[in-house]
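#onboarding

Welcome to the new folks! Below is a worked example of what a typical request in this channel looks like: someone posts a single protein sequence, and someone else replies with the predicted structure as tokens. Don't worry about understanding the tokens yet, we'll cover that in week two.

Example request:
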Amino acid sequence: MSEKGTVIRHRGIYLLPNLFTTGAMFAGFYAITSAINANFEVAAISIFVAMILDGLDGRVARLTNTQSEFGVQYDSLSDMVSFGVAPAIVMYLWAFSSLGKLGLFAAFVHTAGGALRLARFNTQVEIADKRYFQGLPSPAAAAILAGFLWINVEYNYDLESVKFIALLLTISTGLLMVSNFRYSSFKDIDFKGRVPFVATIIVMLSLAFIMIQPPAMLFLLFLAYAISGPVITLVTLRQKRMQKKSIKNLE
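Example response:
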């Protein structure tokens, strides 16, 4: 309380959701340090751990009613480290260091794509359609690179034979993040509602396949999600064209 009797309110931050955000950022940082020490499998797994923690912080904030503007901005900075910088550096140290400027270019495209994706998301969050993301989400982009790396380390594939595939994937994820392709956000799914019994079986089988072959299944899952963006966009554009033709025919 001040000398004039007015109460001074000190602004604070909510601890619980920001702990998850900090954990996600640490996992991204740990992925970088693991790659520096040539522990590439650990680096890939750390990126997936960052994804899990990043998915939890927002849900915990909503469940506990602890959303804040600080949390939103902190989450974006954490995402930049874990899904923009970390995957690019990990891929560069694993496969691109021998490619010179081309390797630097590929890694930077992913990093810059992640930064631009997050900046655009933050500026359009109030006006964007909640059902879709514009551009590939940065966690999914990072998961594609981490999954590809994990597969190659797990099965001991020859790096020389896959480095240019890794290069293409890294550049592609960077470009997809800043594209105008629409990706489902899955926010319109009612997880509290009833679902057909078949849906439960499909979910259980999917989890079982992921547990049996985590590297391959996670990579294919997020690769399919990346491909879904162009497909959804093209289907939507085709539907709009068909509607316009139908209206013209009626006129």
